[in-house]
């Protein structure tokens, strides 16, 4: 009995060492892809699941432009976080028809959910609200996964397919 306890403790100890040596084992397999901001190379292409690095509003009148492809029905989340400076990030998004679908700002962080009505290339712009401050920020674009609701699916199948019970 005592041997088994010692063996168990040893195994747990070894596992702890392995996890501490390879922290990536306990995290997601792939690092999240990112988009490097380079002023003057806009609009920058960003895709679902990506975030930006090295983005900044260099001067109070700077406007950083991005574009992404979206499909009708996509539920997306756009997040903007100020990482330095006094920037009041302003987020604007235009759909493929040129209609502005998002226009919002915050004193530090923005998170907006939107369901896309049209398929095509969307334009996105980050600037300073009021055009009086500068600072750096991170932009993140996510597609919200569809809600998984298995009990309803099972219920629908059993009630609609009566042939099983006839
Ligand atoms: Ca910029
Ligand atoms: Ca710019």
- Give the CA-CA distance, first to last residue: 58 Å
Mean pLDDT: 85
Anisotropy-based shape: elongated
Helix content: 10-25%
Strand content: 35-45%
Strand elements, count: 11
**In terms of structural class, how would the helical and strand content be classed?**
alpha+beta
Class of the domain at 34-143 in CATH?
A: Mainly Beta
Number of helices: 2
User: What is the N-to-C succession of helices and strands?
Assistant: HEEEEEEEEEEEH
Using only C-alpha atoms, the radius of gyration works out to: 24 Å
Looking at the structure, the CATH topology of the domain at 34-143 is Jelly Rolls
Largest sheet: 6 strands, mixed
Low-confidence stretches: none
Bound compounds, each kind once, are:
calcium ion
Architecture blueprint of SSEs:
Elements: H1 2-21, E1 34-36, E2 44-45, E3 50-53, E4 55-57, E5 63-70, E6 75-85, E7 89-94, E8 100-105, E9 109-115, E10 120-128, E11 135-143, H2 150-160
Parallel strand pairs: 1-3, 2-5
Antiparallel strand pairs: 3-11, 4-11, 5-10, 6-9, 6-11, 7-8, 7-10
The structure holds calcium ion (CA) (2 copies).
One calcium ion (CA) is lined by residues 39, 56-58, 62, 64.
Explain what this protein looks like in three dimensions.
By secondary structure, the chain is α+β, with helices and mostly antiparallel strands. It has a domain at 34-143: Jelly Rolls, CATH 2.60.120. It is 19% helix and 41% strand. The protein has two helices and eleven strands, in the order H-E-E-E-E-E-E-E-E-E-E-E-H. The chain has helices spanning 2-21, 150-160, and strands at residues 34-36, 44-45, 50-53, 55-57, 63-70, 75-85, 89-94, 100-105, 109-115, 120-128, 135-143. The strands form two sheets. Strands 1, 3, 4, 6, 9 and 11 form a six-stranded mixed beta sheet that branches. The protein has a five-stranded mixed beta sheet with strand order 2-5-10-7-8, with no helix packed on it. A hairpin with a 5-residue loop joins strand 7 and strand 8. The longest helix is centred in the N-terminal third of the chain and has 20 residues, at 2-21. It is elongated. 17% of the residues are buried. One calcium ion (CA) binds at residues 39, 42, 62-64.
